[in-house]
Amino acid sequence: MAGPGVPAPVIEVACRAGEEFAQIYYDTLDKRRHLMAPLYSETSQLVWNGWKGDGMAEIRQVLQKVPSSEHSIHSLDCQPIPASASGNTTAVLVSTEGHVRYDGEQKTRQFTQQFVLMKDDVWKIASDCFRFIG
To answer: What is the pTM of this model?
Structure first.
């Protein structure tokens, strides 16, 4: 449901983009990590539980340090970012929460992750922040 002053189509676009993105992102991260770079731009920023990467090359290096994984998403929220806050670019904030199991580990770990997606011709990750919970 759209909130005060936010047209319903804007909310629908944000939700659809965020849901489709999350499915592609976690599927690629878990099964085809070597194909992650096109999801980011040259100016993207990543913070992965304290490791930092700026731009595709550094982000690729950070993601290569992360063991193979299997993510399970329990919560997903998508919100449009106002044009006044995104330089008049279509942008969406995507927040996820779930559990991840890494190769060689029996237990899963709870995590939260936030993405800012920006659309030029295609959606790209502008900012990506991953944190373990607990």
So the answer is: 0.89
